[in-house]
Amino acid sequence: MASTTLTLTPALKINGVVPRFGSKFHFYGGIPTDYTNPILSCSSSIKHRNNRLKPVCSAGLNRSSGLSSHTFDVVIIGAGIIGLTIARQFLLGSNLSVAIVDAAAPCAGATGAGQGYIWKVHRDPGTEKWELVMRSHQLWEALAESIHNQGLDPVQTLGWKKTGSMLVGRTANECSALKSRVEQLLEAGLEASFLSHDDLQSEEPALMLGSEGGAAFVPDDYQIDARRTVAFIEKGNRYFAAEGRYAEFYYEQATSLLRSECSGEVVAVQTSKNTLYSKKAIIVAAGCWSGSMLHDLISNSEIELDFPVKPRKGHLLVIENFKSLNLNHGLMELGYVNHKSATLSSSTSDSGSAYDAHTSSVSMTATMDMSGRLVLGSSRQLVGFNTEIDESVITQIWERAGEFFPILKQVSLKELNKSREVRVGLRPYMPDGKPVIDHVPRISNMFVAAGHEGEGLTLALGTAEMIANIVLSNPQKVDPAPYSMNTIIAV
Ligand SMILES: Cc1cc2nc3c(=O)[nH]c(=O)nc-3n(C[C@H](O)[C@H](O)[C@H](O)COP(=O)(O)OP(=O)(O)OC[C@H]3O[C@@H](n4cnc5c(N)ncnc54)[C@H](O)[C@@H]3O)c2cc1C
Q: Does the beta carbon of 114 lie inside 6 Å of ligand 1?
């Protein structure tokens, strides 16, 4: 097949540098003895087709380049929570073979820093995203239930904790906003209540909001542990390697895409070690790196594409064995909602040169994970692809938490030096606050699922279902129109 190569500018940059990774290519053979059957662990709405496959995965050596070539139905670029759950969806819901490529490994991107709350308390019923939020929640609950039904513990496998969530305010104005929010959540059919200062004394004794304070409470909300969940999903995907339907190409950056001169379709993903041909779909799920990848792909065609995803840096402070504070629920301050949706100032650039108060914020989020670690967040900064720890941000996170939990003021951050971990990740920020889940116009076999900012863990399962339904031309559970590429592309 005649093809041309489009070279990508290095998509993965850490501190402006392209990391050099060794190559790890795994065709996993054999099924781990402690393996959880992914067929059982999929949600009830996903049907596993037990068809035997015709051989779909072939390998060969590209003589001119010395690179190996392999053929799959679906090639996914990016093995964060979005790429991995998309792979899972195809493996469980179709008979297609899947390859997943990552410049590093699954938790190297935003996913490894995720706090893990899958909450509805800060969501607005009736907005464009509501349907996808609710569908994703439904799928997460179904997954946890199926794990439980297999005799496994969702706490151990996913870090699943059904603590309920609270959105808290300290002033009369904030409480009036929280009460309206509770009304809206009730009207949308959720269980929700407003807790006054007095109610909170028994529900969350360490929380001090003052006499005017209160909280919107959703008792059914839950959290996961992002790293455990990723490990579980990976393990389930690897089950399909034995039948030649799944392979991971980690520590292999996608460097270019091969395009057919005749059809214009993208036929393969070129990595540093392999050429991965795709028979059905190539899906870009590379989080905040997806923009440069798509830009370079499209640059030689008649389509103008500016996929405006930007890295929005976030810090989390994780404290081991912290005895001074116990949390019964997951908490978030009301200000988080505004900080999250704050739009870019027109002067802000990726280099971070226009980084200012408008584009930097710290709002209190507090959870306790399944191992009893206190997890405090979170910050939002537009400082390009920089992932260095900024101690001043950690101090701000600690001090902000102290305003809600005064007991923390009795402990200095220095004392915690040995028991703390800082996680930094780059959220894939979209100016309109929505991910894109769609095919790339005029390139029928190329798709994108990226731009989930601070809610990629929450929306992962619904996103995976949606993109798989688009590729397979299956009916949708959720209207995909709000996530269309057409909203951002100029043709
Ligand atoms: C501090 C913090 C707290 C958060 N808390 C929550 C939360 O509580 N709940 C929630 O729902 N969400 C949360 N999020 C958001 C969530 O983590 C992200 O939305 C989600 O992880 C995005 O997943 P992704 O797969 O799109 O991107 P990523 O996880 O960033 O994955 C992208 C992958 O693409 C790979 N890649 C890049 N370039 C290339 C290339 N050229 N070739 C091959 N691979 C490439 C990278 O190595 C990376 O592994 C949080 C984020 C942060 C930073």
A: yes
Q: d(Cα 92, Cα 463) in Å, to the nearest integer?
A: 15
Residue nearest to ligand 1 atom 35, measured at CA: 78
In angstroms, what is the span from residue 245 Cα to ligand 1's centroid?
25
369-408 pLDDT per residue, tens: 999 999 999 999 999 999 999 999 999 999 999 999 999 9
| Whether the CB of 366 sits within 6 Å of ligand 1 | no
Question: Band of the pLDDT at 489, cuts 50, 70, 90?
Answer: low
Does any ligand 1 atom lie closer than 6 A to the CB of residue 121? no
CATH assignment at residue 87 = 3.50.50.60
* Residue 43 shares a structural domain with residue 10: yes
Q: Is 286 in the pocket of ligand 1 (CB under 6 A)?
A: yes
CB count within 10 Å of CB 48 equals 15
pLDDT for position 308: 93
Query: Is 197 within a domain?
Result: no
Number of separate domains in the chain: 2
385 Cα–ligand 1 center, Å: 13
How does 64-89 read in b/e, with b if 16+ C-beta sit within 10 Å?
Answer: eeeeebbbbbbbbbbbbbbbbbbbbb
Domain-embedded: residue 203: no
Nearest-5° Cα angle at 478, 144 to 47: 50
Q: Whose CA is nearest to atom 10 of ligand 1?
A: 455
In a domain, 173, yes or no: no
Q: Whole-prediction pTM value?
A: 0.88
CATH of the domain at 379: 3.30.9
Q: How far apart are CA 162 and CA 484, in angstroms?
A: 33
